[in-house]
Write a structure and sequence with these properties.
The protein is of the alpha/beta class. The chain has 16 helices and 16 strands.
Length: 397
């Protein structure tokens, strides 16, 4: 991503510092979901400043590959699909509807281009010892690995999941048996914490797992919490990326100040790194004047924070790993993904839906402090694997 016109890697932070692999043997494959991303990539750099080797897809893809990717939906026949059973239920009508309603999906288009990319790379006699992908089991990933497994069947592959989520809610992040059988997944899935391992064994899929460094979260190991127990003064509201969730948090805060006042708390609002100022800034402008907005993120503010309020995100577990209490705001949808309760149980955070809930939570959160103090090390080591040379070299080779 780009921040203040500078390139920052949010996925594999400091990988090269810990790796013994020579720079000339390590290549990064950038994906440009939007043409603006490619423009930024070219505009803010002469490629020397990135200090990395990049393998650029458009140098290998042919015009015909783009055409096939754009119009591939015309050749997908839902009529010949037949019956598809899931736990004894015929779900073929859902799949047919999905095919029709997502006929020209951008993520699918990128997946098809990824397939053609590996075809072209093979034609150019380019070989790899190992291929690593930021893996979310999306259509892009499926096309990516279908190409890899077809044209580089003997190459080692690792699908890295450098994040934490509710696997019960986001069940599609785990490859299904049919996806594994049809070579749409990596040979190994990389997880960033041992506590995540059980989430992959719940449905019995034969998925090989590898414990990998939590590249994005190494700052957790360099932090000493000086916050006084049971003292809540500075409250950080870390906004999620979803627009409806942002609206809900803003409305709860405005309602809270209207009914209960500031209550001697300092409220600080932090934007998501991917926050779209052009589209969503009108929502933020409506927030009560008692809240001060900042461009700094949780990593930069953590020393000043006594309490975190956010949606369901990895930031919540980061905070708990640092002994900072957490209040999660339920989603506006009927089904809510609670990342804390899904991974840690019910009694270590509080979920809210309204200003009244927030007022109650601010009184009760002090009593969770003792439990957080006891569990924070288990959370840190169980969900955020520490970065070492041994772990990074195992990851990269």
């Amino acid at each position: 991503m780009f921040k203040n016109n500078k390139f920052e890697d949010r996925y594999y932070t400091n990988l090269e510092k810990f790796s013994d692999l020579k720079k000339e043997n390590l290549f990064f494959l950038p994906i440009f979901p939007k043409i603006e991303d490619l423009k930024k990539f070219i505009k803010f750099n002469n490629f020397i400043n990135y200090k990395r080797n990049f393998l650029l897809p458009f140098l290998y893809l042919k015009f015909s590959d783009y055409v096939k990717g754009l119009f591939s939906f015309l050749f997908v026949s839902h009529k010949s699909l037949g019956k598809v059973n899931l736990n004894g239920l015929d779900i073929s009508f859902i799949i047919k509807d999905e095919i029709l309603s997502n006929a020209n999906n951008r993520n699918s288009f990128l997946g098809i281009l990824s397939y053609f990319l590996f075809k072209r790379l093979k034609q150019n006699n380019i070989e790899f010892d190992k291929i690593i992908d930021w893996y979310e089991n999306s259509p892009l990933d499926k096309g990516f690995y279908y190409g890899v497994n077809k044209y580089y069947p003997k190459t080692k592959t690792l699908g890295y999941q450098g994040f934490i989520l509710s696997h019960e809610f986001n069940f599609y992040f785990k490859p299904e048996k049919i996806e594994i059988k049809n070579k749409l997944s990596p040979k190994v899935v990389g997880i960033q914490g041992d506590k995540i391992r059980t989430k992959f064994k719940s449905r019995g899929e034969n998925i090989k797992l590898q414990l990998c460094p939590a590249f994005r979260y190494q700052h957790l190991y360099n932090f000493i919490n000086i916050r006084k127990k049971n003292k809540i003064k500075n409250i950080l509201i870390a906004l999620p990326i979803g627009r409806e969730e942002i609206k809900k948090i803003v409305n709860i805060l405005n309602d809270f100040f209207l009914k209960y006042g500031k209550k001697n708390y300092n409220f600080i609002l932090s934007m998501h790194p991917s926050y779209n100022f052009e589209k969503d800034n009108h929502i933020i402008k409506k927030i009560n004047k008692n809240v001060s907005a900042t461009n700094k993120n949780f990593i930069e503010l953590k020393k000043k924070v006594d309490l975190l309020i956010s949606g369901s995100s990895t930031t919540c577990l980061e905070a708990l790993a640092l002994k900072i209490p957490v209040i999660t705001v339920n989603s506006s949808s009927n089904i809510f993904e609670d990342i804390v309760k899904s991974n840690l149980g019910k009694d270590i955070s509080i979920s809210i839906n309204s200003a009244k809930d927030l007022s109650f939570a601010l009184e009760r959160i002090k009593y969770l402090d003792k439990k957080i103090q006891k569990q924070h090390k288990k959370i840190l080591h169980g969900f955020f694997c520490k970065m070492t040379k041994e772990k990074v070299n195992e990851f990269i080779t």
